[in-house]
Amino acid sequence: MSLIVQKFGGTSVANAKLIFNVANIITRAYQEGNDVVVIVSAQGDMTDELIGKANEINLNASKREMDVLLSSGEQISIALLSMAIEKLGFPVVSLLGWQAGVMTSSTYGSAMITRIDPGRIKKELDKKNIVIVAGFQGLSQYYDVTTLGRGGSDTSAVGIAVALSADLCQIYTDVEGVYTADPRFVKDARKLDSISYDEMLELATLGAQVLNNRSVEIAKKHHVELEVLSSFVDVPGTIVKEVANMEKILISGVAKDSNVAKISIVGIPDTQGWAFRIFSKLSARDINVDTILQSAACNGKRDIFFTIREDRLDDALEALSKYCESIKGAKLTYDKDVSKVSIVGAGMQTHSGIAAKMFEALFAAHIDIQMIATSEIKVSVIVSKEDTDEAVRTVHNAFFATMD
Amino acid sequence: MSLIVQKFGGTSVANAKLIFNVANIITRAYQEGNDVVVIVSAQGDMTDELIGKANEINLNASKREMDVLLSSGEQISIALLSMAIEKLGFPVVSLLGWQAGVMTSSTYGSAMITRIDPGRIKKELDKKNIVIVAGFQGLSQYYDVTTLGRGGSDTSAVGIAVALSADLCQIYTDVEGVYTADPRFVKDARKLDSISYDEMLELATLGAQVLNNRSVEIAKKHHVELEVLSSFVDVPGTIVKEVANMEKILISGVAKDSNVAKISIVGIPDTQGWAFRIFSKLSARDINVDTILQSAACNGKRDIFFTIREDRLDDALEALSKYCESIKGAKLTYDKDVSKVSIVGAGMQTHSGIAAKMFEALFAAHIDIQMIATSEIKVSVIVSKEDTDEAVRTVHNAFFATMD
What we know:
Radius of gyration of chain A: 23 Å
Mean pLDDT of chain A: 89
Oligomer: homodimer
Number of strands of chain A: 18
Low-confidence stretches of chain A: none
Largest sheet of chain A: 8 strands, mixed
Shape of chain A: globular
Helix content of chain A: 25-40%
Structural class of chain A: alpha/beta
Strand content of chain A: 25-35%
Order of helices and strands of chain A: EHEHHEEEHEEEHEEHHEEEHEEHEHEEH
Number of helices of chain A: 11
Distance between the termini of chain A: 38 Å
């Protein structure tokens, strides 16, 4: 007998029929003799519906009250899912975040889990109940309801799996697992049997968002095995664990991220501290800088290029424009027409030539590489938006077409 | 400075515009220098909507999960109302039932308040916050969410008013106060300035349901002054207190109750214990017997007639049919075509002739009285359903037309 934590997202419980589909998955695991704890998100568009209600009243509502409002979404779905399991004839109990002992920081809207006291969950498991827990929500030290931010149900699931020392944490979603590339754009994309935590983290960061990043970090830290699988198709998914089966696969996948904008500042006098000034202005607004390219000094001046999330561009320009105006000769420009295409794979660490092979493939396809960034298990290139899908296909082909 | 508890029902917060109307009432009381605690119900049809979602999944869902589901309704309305008050620029905080310290029995769906720990509410009032509390819900000793049953928000409001030793508990509703008769049917019906707890209790029992009965009982026991008033029309309402201004008014109101059925059992052998047997069978099913009429023994046989709530009739007949079949000669019949019309008034205690005046008026209007029941402050008659409205008008006229 194992202890399994299962997590179902909002699309998996969007209506009564889907709720029964999920109830069947859960009760099957229970019938196989497992202890089952389930984390569930708000139904389909419920969160957006609730935000709509709030916006009708106050566009600047406090995050505290927003959390009270939004957490009702999971409350509805845990009750409905429990009722479906009751209907199937199994013992079940639903728990809200605070009942499940999910304690968080007081940062309403994007709270961090500080600790989980699984006492109540364990008591219900001892009674042989299936336990349905509201994801995405917790309780602050001031006994206020908090939410973990979008995607937070994954974090709830992994956190609870850690607290219970679960044998497996299954993340059910609307895809069948982690693919070597987005199967909607790359027809040869393959589902991976397994992938390492680090690779999964890089893929998540790069926009191949199958799992919430924080949840992967927690799983890695506490060695909880994850499985990403489909709630709609009954096939094995992808296991996320410490070391994946890397024998044959050098790279795990090709990812793209279109939420990218490039900022250029040219003609900065080559004095000390200018980089610090630029990036501190951005970090003050919580804007993450990604790929950075900086020119060698030339005539006492430097140029710098870097990318940020496109949806933070206006914010970034506002933060930088005053500073750039104050520097004689410096010029601030931006380009929204860029994307990032990356290959990820722990195999890179031991195999040379991976980056070269990627660049060669892009060159052969006449795709211009604007910027390059590399890490131990990742190579990213910035290309123009119109080249993105072709770049993904080309790179995927270069690495996976020869593997059969 | 006073401490005022205000309660708003679901129709008062049904949409964004109405929520702002309520927010204006609340902030006006706050601006006048009062501490304000507000109890609010789920929006308009929200409860029915949630029940619909549950019924789609499981018509026999456990009451525990039903309570988890339904309590999300008030959670949504406290958040939205708080956001509206924030928008108006006032300090506000919303509290769920368990945060407000409302402890209840574990009878899911119709829990009783066992105690209220107002610590958190007081702390928020000390911070000069307007406090918005979710009505209708509480927490059991097992840390499960419970609901107080329909109309329970009135009970929440009065309970919290008691716990806080509030100076006044205002129950905002869609009528302007307590009337001498239902103003929809009796055009001369007048709003009462005040009414005693006992009269209010009798009126509530008799189907003139302005206030939930348990809430009036709690208010009476703890001497909390209630005011019933409209959230739509800005006029003084009706004060409910220990002793109303009875100088001029003998009776406070005329009420009707159409949820009545009459059961007749004729030809019962006149032996000891038969009444006990009949009524114990009904009480075993939690069926309340109301007006009872029993004939004198005749030829060693008796007849008995009594009324119950019409919606319990099938249950009652099932409970009694076996017993009646077992008694030779006894015959069980019923009549759904009856209503109860009552006059209520503490003035009856000191004025004779009230009942006679009522019967005389009904006789003059050719309305047949089938049964009569009286208490210290109430006279009720059972009439046929088609005579009901005419009976109310006639009786109201007899007592109120001469009062100018």
